[in-house]
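Exercise (ungraded).
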Amino acid sequence: MSQTVDRALSILPLLAEGPADLGQVADRLGVHKSTALRLLRTLHEHGLVYRQSDQRYRLGARLFALAQEAMENLDIREIAHPHLVRLNEQCGHTVHLAVHEENEVLYIDKVESRYPVRMYSRIGKPVAITVAAVAKLLLADLPEPERRALADKLDYPLYTARSTPNAAAFLRELEQVREQGWATDLGGHEESINCVAAPVRGADGRVVAAMSVSAPNVVVTADELLTLLPQVRRTADAISGEYSGRTPVKGTPA
Amino acid sequence: MSQTVDRALSILPLLAEGPADLGQVADRLGVHKSTALRLLRTLHEHGLVYRQSDQRYRLGARLFALAQEAMENLDIREIAHPHLVRLNEQCGHTVHLAVHEENEVLYIDKVESRYPVRMYSRIGKPVAITVAAVAKLLLADLPEPERRALADKLDYPLYTARSTPNAAAFLRELEQVREQGWATDLGGHEESINCVAAPVRGADGRVVAAMSVSAPNVVVTADELLTLLPQVRRTADAISGEYSGRTPVKGTPA
DNA sequence: CTGGTGCGTTGCACCTACTGCAACGTCCAT
DNA sequence: ATGGACGTTGCAGTAGGTGCAACGCACCAG
């Protein structure tokens, strides 16, 4: 829409491929050297472009700083909430959003079931880390040594007969969850309650949050709940897309 | 230097603080809304800016992608080499550059000693990971569980009486290296050879490479070699600065 | 030492394309 | 209904971006 800015921004992906000198930049932009020089200078003043000792240009540190700062100020909750509400409107059950923090998994958002029988949970409360579906997803994404170290440190309380009994079983389950890309908790925390969960991923593919749908047996059976899996995954993917700023729309010029 | 581009780029740090709507952007730029709109649209087409569901703008995923791609295409060796040469010119000893890769530490560059007595080493060859100064620096930066897991997996060959004897001693040494920010190998690999090493860090502060100066006892004593530490650290810091694209120069406008 | 080539840089005249304005559409709250 | 807030569009004027040509400089070969 704005030619000058358009050209300037086209320099960035070009430099991402590797350092380039003024002539190369001008050629690939299809503009005169003097024009390219001015654009590069402007980019340089903003720190997006760095001039190395051999005079060639490359991307600068500011870019990294910006990306990082934006990351930190990104509030998953804010982004996810409308999606959670929509899912709740569709299926009626309790919807949770959870993140991993400091060896704990915490619920950070929740949309209450519209059925009279509700499950108990509280935003901000650590979840039962060894059995909750969301916890499995979040921990399954850790690098292997950390996963192992954490699994060893945990207690494995037997909430029910189906609770994860020990570190070995837990690690096996995490491996499976990691591969299939979703998780369940079928009566592992409270006999009568089942969950299905799916991961929310950031731009780099790492799991930044997990969301789940939970319902007691008296409302739907585990099998019925499992039929919601595609819907849950679709919702999680939608949140991932928005969180990582993937623009789902029209053509971006080469 | 270019007004339009200048304005467009000023939007980025502004959005890094958090999402903003058109009016806010226009105000803080001091331009008309229609102008801000056009700039935002251009940024949007390049994926640097994303429009969330509430119509507000925030930084887009492309920014991360660019930063990552630039990272990958950054060649430390290319950047470091002139610095290594300069250091070699100053002190005359062998200078090495090493990186950590797949449970190994590899020399990726080397400037030969200008003294007649040289130490043996080859670019591309894995270093003695349990004793080499550069290896200590690279491994000391790993997260604790990974460091531990790796230390357990390693063999601890007794090259000399001063070689690191076992995992416990190694981990203790890594902890110390981590805190002091430099490392040595005093006859741990070959009786008569000593090294001092310093880390090269990326924009995010993580250690991406390590460099060392090595010399045999017959040329300089260990104590004499240690007096070079400040020089080695200064060189490593210079490489870090250039690698991470920190522009050491003049004022960038607010 | 000299002439040549390749690079980044500068000043300038032309005219593109960026700007601000004002008007319109839409959505919400009153 | 009515007012306000906000994003969006078309348009006329001119700010400022563009390409050209010339310059300075470093490097290399004759």
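Further reading is listed at the end of the chapter. For now, observe: Residues 3-4, 31-35, 38 of chain A lie near DNA strand D (CB under 10 Å from a C1'). The mean pLDDT of chain A is 88.
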